[in-house]
């Protein structure tokens, strides 16, 4: 099994996903099985192969630097879980 | 023809234009059909009946004033990850259960401006991650051919709604087979366009270098008409291809004489059902009898596509889904003073198991010490897969394969083992990796369940594929078969 319990906890922390004890055990097994499938790629010598990010050639696209109509503040805040006036209300970010 | 809901898009167009019935009549008929079957099929997350009837009235006004276009008055279902202003767009996830977009996706903006009528939003695997629609956080969709079986996924709602004659046409999205595989399992036609053909603006992102919106319809012509309405350059999508407009419907001539078709042996995999093999092989003979030539070709990197895909797609997913933090929109756990605790619990409760699995897989593949071994390696393999296709397309015009090695399977059969579920998409994943266009076309039955044939072409060859599919449809009746529901 390529992943141990600590690995799963580390990945969950990177991904900011809380996990129950049961989830940790299940994901340890399932993610390990999936990672086993990836071993197949080692058969291929890719030392001289350029990576592909997009299958279709894409160049950096720039638009004219012209101000556009912004979203209405009410629209912007329509889905806010918590708001205060025209602001998103969040939990304390800075510690004392 | 006894009921309006049974019409194809092409037939509905003719009836609306001749005044045989109104857009309101057609929309009402679709909602009558939905009332008959939807409690068994469950293809819709949201129904928008009153909104639809208003749109249909507007369409009738446009038609009577001579302002109608090809989509005016056509009832459509739109997959629930395509943003619709003022109408909930949930991705079939608890995370977005109450999310209401404040802008339209380009594809829906285009369709609504052309007078299309929104029936509702299509059920799907959560965030488009899955192959059976069982990963919907709300309920599974049922295959209209056998209600105990899955419709495929992730665009299971799109395919099931068209197969059950609830919708005239539907929009889905395809990241690794999510239009083609459900189209195959439900016996309808689905097209995944070339990457960049259709704007992704307003498509809630899963894997940005693979995602593409496309139509699910009752035949190739209906898909072509829909493509005419949704394709084209969009400055709001930086990966949109800046090309002159294409008339996909005009590509359909019915003549495929001299077309060179390649059959890649690697796609006729070991675990393939015999009934699927027989149906696809018979269909290939049918294409040959219509004047196409057939030859074997080889795509030796096919066996690496699954691993390549399951590194690239989760990596992009882990980055794209980082935005669901409970701050600006979506589900938000509040019952703690701690910011990190709130974020972790928001994501623990808001995401289902498959989404968590893929986010974690991606986070691992991109993490310090593993990036070269996984993500970089997969991107290099992606180059080899692309080169494989480029080489065979010097030799042939299109490839013919099964869409799925299996027909629709029983609900619950494959949910315990993610790897078994991933293997179902073995014939469709390589196409997204290479950014190619491909279709699924009904080509027979195995044990009473639909089988789909996949047609794959080089970049920007949608017109040729639609013509090939249409020529096959002219010679066969498979696409006309409907489930007795």
Brief overview, please?
The complex is a heterodimer of chains A (96) and B (485). With 96 residues, chain A is mainly α. Chain A is 34% helix and 4% strand.
CATH architecture of chain B: Alpha-Beta Complex
Q: What class do helices, strands and sheet pairing of chain A give?
A: mainly alpha
Order of helices and strands of chain B: HHEHEHEHEHEEHEHEHHHHEHHEEH
Oligomer: heterodimer
Beta-sheet strand percentage of chain A?
Answer: under 5%
Radius of gyration of chain B: 21 Å
Q: From the helix content, strand content and strand pairing of chain B, which structural class follows?
A: alpha/beta
Biggest pleated-sheet summary of chain B: 11 strands, mixed
Tell me the span between the first and last alpha carbons of chain B.
17 Å
Q: Write down the overall mean pLDDT of chain B.
A: 97
Mean pLDDT of chain A: 92
Topology of helices and strands:
The complex is a heterodimer of chains A (96) and B (485).
Chain A: H1 5-14, H2 21-38, H3 73-77, E1 83-84, E2 87-88
Antiparallel strand pairs in A: 1-2
Chain B: H1 9-18, H2 23-41, E1 44-47, H3 49-64, E2 75-79, H4 106-113, E3 117-122, H5 156-163, E4 169-173, H6 180-186, E5 189-192, E6 213-217, H7 220-230, E7 260-264, H8 274-289, E8 293-297, H9 305-320, H10 339-350, H11 353-365, H12 372-395, E9 398-402, H13 418-423, H14 429-433, E10 438-446, E11 449-456, H15 462-475
Parallel strand pairs in B: 2-3, 2-4, 7-8, 7-9
Antiparallel strand pairs in B: 1-3, 4-6, 5-6, 5-10, 9-11, 10-11
């Amino acid at each position: 099994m390529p992943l141990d319990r600590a690995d799963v906890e580390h990945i969950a922390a990177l991904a900011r996903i809380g996990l129950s004890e049961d989830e940790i055990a299940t994901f340890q097994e399932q993610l390990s099985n999936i990672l086993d499938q990836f071993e197949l790629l080692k058969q291929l010598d890719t030392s001289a192969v350029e990576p592909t990010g997009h299958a279709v050639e894409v160049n950096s696209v720039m638009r004219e630097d012209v101000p556009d109509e912004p979203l209405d503040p009410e629209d912007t805040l329509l889905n806010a879980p918590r708001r205060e006036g025209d602001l998103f209300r969040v939990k304390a970010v800075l510690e004392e | 023809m006894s009921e309006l809901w049974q019409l194809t898009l092409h037939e509905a167009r003719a009836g609306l234009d001749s005044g045989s019935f109104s857009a309101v009549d057609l929309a009402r008929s679709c909602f009558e059909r939905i009332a008959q079957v939807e409690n068994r099929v469950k293809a819709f997350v949201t129904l928008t009946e009153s909104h639809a009837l208003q749109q249909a009235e507007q369409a009738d006004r446009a038609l009577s004033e001579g302002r109608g276009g090809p989509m005016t008055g056509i009832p459509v279902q739109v997959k629930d990850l395509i943003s619709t202003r003022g109408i909930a767009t949930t991705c079939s996830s608890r995370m977005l259960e109450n999310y209401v977009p404040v802008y339209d996706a380009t594809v829906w903006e285009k369709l609504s401006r052309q007078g299309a009528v929104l029936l509702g939003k299509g059920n799907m695997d959560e965030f488009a991650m899955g192959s059976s629609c069982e990963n919907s956080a709300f309920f599974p969709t049922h295959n209209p051919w056998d209600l105990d079986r899955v419709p495929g996924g992730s665009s299971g709602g799109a395919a099931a709604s068209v197969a059950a004659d609830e919708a005239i046409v539907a929009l889905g999205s395809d990241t690794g087979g999510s239009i083609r595989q459900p189209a195959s399992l439900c016996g309808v036609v689905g097209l995944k366009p070339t990457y960049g053909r259709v704007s992704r603006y307003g498509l809630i992102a899963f894997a940005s270098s693979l995602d593409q919106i496309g139509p699910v319809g009752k035949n190739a012509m209906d898909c072509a008409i829909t493509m005419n309405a949704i394709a084209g350059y969009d400055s709001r999508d930086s990966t949109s291809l800046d090309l002159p407009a294409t008339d996909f419907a005009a590509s359909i001539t019915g003549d495929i004489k001299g077309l060179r078709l390649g059959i890649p042996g690697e796609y006729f995999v070991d675990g393939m059902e015999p009934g699927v093999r027989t149906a696809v092989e018979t269909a290939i003979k049918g294409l040959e009898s219509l004047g196409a030539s057939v030859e074997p070709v080889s795509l030796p990197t096919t066996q690496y596509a699954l691993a390549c895909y399951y590194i690239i797609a989760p990596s992009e997913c882990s980055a794209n889904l980082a935005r669901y933090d409970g701050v600006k929109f979506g589900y938000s756990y509040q019952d703690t003073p701690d910011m990190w605790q709130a974020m972790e619990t928001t994501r623990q409760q808001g995401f289902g198991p498959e989404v968590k699995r893929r986010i974690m897989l991606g986070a691992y593949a991109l993490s310090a010490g593993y990036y070269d071994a996984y993500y970089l390696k997969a991107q290099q393999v992606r180059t080899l897969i692309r080169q494989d296709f480029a080489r065979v397309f010097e030799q042939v015009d299109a490839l013919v394969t099964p869409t799925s090695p299996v027909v629709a399977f029983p609900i619950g059969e494959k949910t315990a083992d993610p790897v078994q579920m991933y293997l179902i998409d073995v014939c469709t994943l390589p196409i997204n990796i290479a950014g190619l266009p491909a279709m699924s076309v009904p080509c027979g039955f195995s044990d009473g369940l639909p089988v789909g044939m996949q047609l794959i072409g080089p970049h920007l060859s949608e017109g040729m594929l639609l013509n090939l599919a249409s020529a096959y449809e002219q010679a066969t009746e498979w696409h006309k078969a409907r489930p007795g529901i």
